[in-house]
Design brief:
- The chain is α+β, with helices and mostly antiparallel strands.
- The protein has helices at 43-51, 93-103, 108-121, 137-150, 167-184, 195-201, 219-224, 229-234, and strands at 3-14, 17-28, 32-36, 58-63, 66-67, 78-81, 155-159, 187-192, 204-209, 212-217, 239-241, 244-246, 252-254, 263-274, 278-285, 290-296, 307-312, 318-319.
- The longest helix is centred in the middle third of the chain and has 18 residues, at 167-184.
- It starts with a strand and ends in a 5-residue tail after the last strand.
């Protein structure tokens, strides 16, 4: 394995609050890695310990095999793009980028060349003399990225990088961000609470909950093979039935019972919402249990009050104990 970063059994408390408890993870060189989880789960604290803004109470943080847990932020070749981008309002976009390079001690000639290179990389040529107040949210993010990329860090850390953008722009920018990471080849670690964002962008995801690491792996692996009910439910909807669950996208609806060995139940349609690419259907089983299905829009449309059969294949069930 080619680990650029290793976090080994780190813990961090703030008074009585155990923010991070015995978390271990590794990040490969050139990877786009996501720290995912709900608010207060500890993901930002882990990021801050990697960046050097917090010191672990216990555990090690290694960059290229070297211990950095006790180093100051400026002593490690790690750059951070903050949630609010932290641009200097009195400096132009170009000057914001040059500030980081000057802080690292680059020669003036090299400074101009690097600034021009990263401006081109983030597609901001022609806007480099604008002040932050004249930049859109997406443009501010690009300048913040350019400032961090210019110093050629071993790791680029991004704290909720898309949260300030509107939903439509967020989808476009996450594609641009992933493409940019592939082109520059620098290791990105992104903190986000948005599971769709993490699943769409990351090579691997570390999902945290209440200060612990619940599961780490590729988006496909943790979605299809969750180890706990928290993981299964955080990464998408699940219809839980006792000791197993089924995701809405594998539930099917038909007027009659299937004859293919599926698990089938009589039900009545409660609601049906058109979402563009599918119908989100809620049905009530004979015992009163609510069950949701996402059926392709090409399938038959079902109306509230209609009696149907809901079914799925046993192979699509997620079997996890209720206590997990």
């Amino acid at each position: 394995m080619n680990h650029v970063l290793e976090v080994r059994a780190v813990s961090k408390s703030f008074g009585a609050n155990h923010a991070v408890r015995d978390v271990s993870l590794n990040v490969e060189r050139g990877e786009l890695f996501a720290l995912l989880g709900p608010s207060g789960c500890g993901k930002t604290t882990v990021l801050r310990m990697i960046a050097g803004f917090e010191t672990p109470d216990r555990g090690d943080v290694l960059l290229d095999g070297k211990q950095i847990a006790q180093l100051k932020p400026y002593e490690r070749n790690v750059s951070t793009v903050f949630q609010n981008y932290a641009l200097f309002p009195h400096l132009t976009a170009r000057q914001n980028i040059e500030f980081g390079l000057r802080h690292k001690g680059n020669a003036i000639g090299d400074l101009a060349a690097r600034t021009q290179k990263v401006l081109e990389l983030v597609q901001m040529l022609g806007k480099e003399e604008r002040f932050p107040a004249r930049l859109s949210g997406g443009e501010k993010q690009r300048i913040a990225l350019a400032r961090s990329l210019a110093i050629e860090p071993d790791l680029l850390l991004l704290d909720e990088p898309l949260s300030a953008l509107d939903p439509k722009l967020r989808k476009r920018v996450r594609g641009e961000l992933k493409d940019l990471q592939r082109r520059v080849g620098i290791t990105f670690i992104i903190v986000t609470h948005d599971q769709e964002e993490a699943m769409a962008m990351a090579d691997r995801v570390a999902l945290m909950n209440k200060g612990i690491l619940e599961q780490m792996g590729t988006p496909e692996a943790i979605y299809l093979r969750p180890k706990t009910r928290f993981v299964a439910s955080f990464l998408g909807s699940v219809n839980w039935r006792g000791e197993y669950g089924v995701r809405p996208e594998v539930v099917r609806i038909s007027p009659t019972a299937p004859r293919n060995g599926a698990r089938s139940h009589r039900a009545q349609i409660h609601s049906s919402l058109f979402l563009g690419n599918c119908f989100h259907v809620e049905a009530r089983l004979e015992d009163g249990t609510a069950l949701t299905a996402e059926i392709p829009r090409q399938d038959q449309t079902y109306l509230p009050g209609e009696n149907v059969h809901v079914w799925w294949h046993p192979d699509d069930e997620i079997h996890l104990p209720a206590a997990s």
